[in-house]
Amino acid sequence: MDTLLAIAAVMLALAGLVGCIIPVIPGPLLSYLALLCAAGCDSLDISSSQLWIWAAVTLVVSVADYLLPAYMAGLFGGTKAGMRGATVGMIVGAIFFNIPGVIVGPFLGAFLGELIHTGGDGAGRALQVGFGAFMAFAVGTGIKLAASGAMLVIICSGLLASLRDLLLDLF
Predict the structure, then answer these.
(1) Whole-number Å distance between alpha carbons of 84 and 112
(2) Residues 46-51: what's their mean pLDDT?
(3) Alpha helices, DSSP H only, in the chain?
(4) Among 120, 155, 137, 133, which residue's Cα sits nearest to residue 41?
(5) pLDDT in tens, 9-36
(6) pTM of the entire structure?
(7) Is the C or the N end of the chain the one with fewer CB within 10 Å?
(8) How far, in whole angstroms, is CA 167 from its chain's centroid?
(9) Closest Cα to residue 87, out of 151, 153, 137?
(10) CA distances (Å), 169 to each of 42, 43, 44, 158, 163, in order?
């Protein structure tokens, strides 16, 4: 059973890393599921409090990833129209255009939201707000990769020790 859990943990952790970049795959959630699988192995010593902490990290990172486009659009000088546009752009982009849509959608949504709000007069400001929404994508991807990467390190550190012991027993 340990071997199956270890294989599942590694596969889920790798899928979690891929999911940090590909928007339709919930990267941090898969990484957390990998951590749960690894916690079931005898070779990984992880406490229930650590699992709860990683559950909270997973939740915070996932929520932040969805809220960042609107927040960053506002941080870069956007109005509520730009923030709403970034959110709508992310959702529409994800639904209709998958990966390119999630990358470009918040930028275009914030840009168009600001252009509509200003009546087409503030193209420079709208570009700035759109850039802020794109930066949110980059920051969101970074924090997801950091969290999922940390979980992968925890998993591999415990499982590599087990693999080493197995190889020493075989040879």
Answers:
(1) 10
(2) 92
(3) 2-21, 27-39, 48-75, 80-118, 123-170
(4) 155
(5) 999 999 999 999 877 789 999 999 999 9
(6) 0.77
(7) C
(8) 35
(9) 137
(10) 16, 15, 18, 17, 10
- One DSSP character per residue, 90-135 reads HHHHHHHHHHHHHHHHHHHHHHHHHHHHHTT--HHHHHHHHHHHHH
Tokens of 73: 């659009």
- Crossing angle, helix 27-39 and helix 48-75, to 10 degrees? 170
The angle at the Cα of 157, spanning 156 to 162, to the nearest 5 degrees, equals: 85
Sequence-ordered list of residues with C-beta below 8 angstroms from that of 66, at least 6 positions apart, any chain: 90
| Rg, the chain, Cα only | 20
**Cα separation, 72 vs 90, whole angstroms:** 13
Contact (CB, 8 A) for 38 and 46: yes
In single-letter form, the type of residue at position 78 comes to G
